[in-house]
Amino acid sequence: MDFLVLITVSVVIAATPMLFAAVGELVVERSGVLNLGVEGMMLIGAVVGFGVTMTTGSAVLGIASAALAGAALALIFAVLVLTLMANQVATGLALTIFGIGLSALIGAGFVGMPIAALPKLFIPGVSDLPVIGPLLFQYDAMVYLSIALTVAVGWFLKSTHAGMVLRAVGESAESAHSIGHPVIRVRYLATLFGGALAGLGGAFLSLSVTPMWAENMTSGRGWIALALVVFGSWRPGRVLLGAYIFGGVTILQLHAQGSGGLGMGLPSQVFTMLPYLATIAVLTIISAGPWRGRFQAPACLGQPFRPSV
């Protein structure tokens, strides 16, 4: 039982950075914008969060700075694609490359310098309960924040006027504009929100999962987050489920490497590929299966919009 609890806790922790990034990207895509720069924004959030925490000693300030850094990088993307009408796919890929290089430059002086991990929340009398205690009440605050944000985004999109406007902008920008909704402003705000959450995902990596900075420490999690949005058919609850499934695949990969390939005699590189092979398999099944109609993207996803005068 203790082993199962340990595995479950590890899965939740492994899923959290991808969940942050995927929920942020979901909001961006529901507004009709396709931002492929998630990996770069996560890396910027990771290095800024780590650097600010190390230099100031405040994890709260580091987390806030990571969100702002991710939003700042997203703002560059938004100006290019929403104001200057640059191609969204090419700009997103350039943003990832830029984020990889900039994070390496900023973090050059922090490589190999560990810090204390984020403290776990401890509730007296509850956290000590067998099984339930360590399973539910011994994570740090960012794990609970990721779940709370997922629930909040689901409520926002489904039950609020602003959420309905955002969905309308993503489905038909022309129609939304014709009845007076500020399409560009909505897309700017959605893009900034997505960047902030990607920054939080990166900060969780460098402050909690492995509390140190290393170049390219996201290791493709930003790309998996993009796939999670499709896997979850642009619905927060399904994205949450998908994040934990992919977190389980990640833990399986680490366990397989540590135990000599689970007795299969396969090279460790095969197990390193597991999360990415799973991503490809899921996207292939979604694209080719008879249920692909249920995974319809927002109608205006990736399409530029210029307001008519």
TrEMBL record:
Any one GO molecular-function label of the UniProt entry: transmembrane transporter activity
Membrane association type: Multi-pass membrane protein
Localization per Swiss-Prot or TrEMBL: Cell membrane
UniProt keyword annotation of DNA-binding present: no
TM spans (from-to): 6-28, 40-61, 67-86, 93-116, 136-157, 188-207, 213-232, 239-256, 268-286
UniProt entry keywords in alphabetical sequence: Cell membrane, Membrane, Transmembrane, Transmembrane helix
GO cellular component annotations of the record: plasma membrane
Stored PANTHER family: ABC TRANSPORTER PERMEASE PROTEIN, SUGAR ABC TRANSPORTER INTEGRAL MEMBRANE PROTEIN-RELATED
Protein name (database record): ABC transporter permease
Source organism of this protein record: Skermanella stibiiresistens SB22
